[in-house]
Amino acid sequence: MITHNSVEIYTADFCGFCNRALQLLKSRDIKYTQYDVTLDRKGREAMSSRAGGKTSVPQIFINNIHIGGSDELIEIALNGNLDHLLNC
User: Fold this and answer.
1) Burial track 21-44 (b if 16+ CB lie within 10 A, e otherwise)
2) Distances (CA, A) of 6 to 21, 38, 63, 64, 78
3) Does residue 72 sit within a domain?
């Protein structure tokens, strides 16, 4: 199990892309902190500020580096960069 990293994911209820990203993290046994911003305006504003103005969910950060959404997470998982980021 990978535990020496910081993975944060901002999600919302009923978000298929969020569920897809969470499933990838779970399938690799990667621990993460999840922030549900469904009804949390201040949380969504904080997410948007960290994510360079992006307002869509999920927004994913690994070791304080903004990854993007689920498509970007899957892309870096497929090209091997996810393991590299987790070990930084």
Assistant:
1) bbebbeeeebebeebebeeeeeeb
2) 15, 22, 5, 7, 20
3) yes
| pTM summary value | 0.91
Kindly report the number of other CB atoms within 10 A of residue 80's CB atom.
8
Residue 1 in domain: no
The mean pLDDT values, 10 residues at a time, for the chain of 88 residues are 74 98 96 97 98 98 96 96 88
CATH number of the domain residue 58 falls in: 3.40.30.10
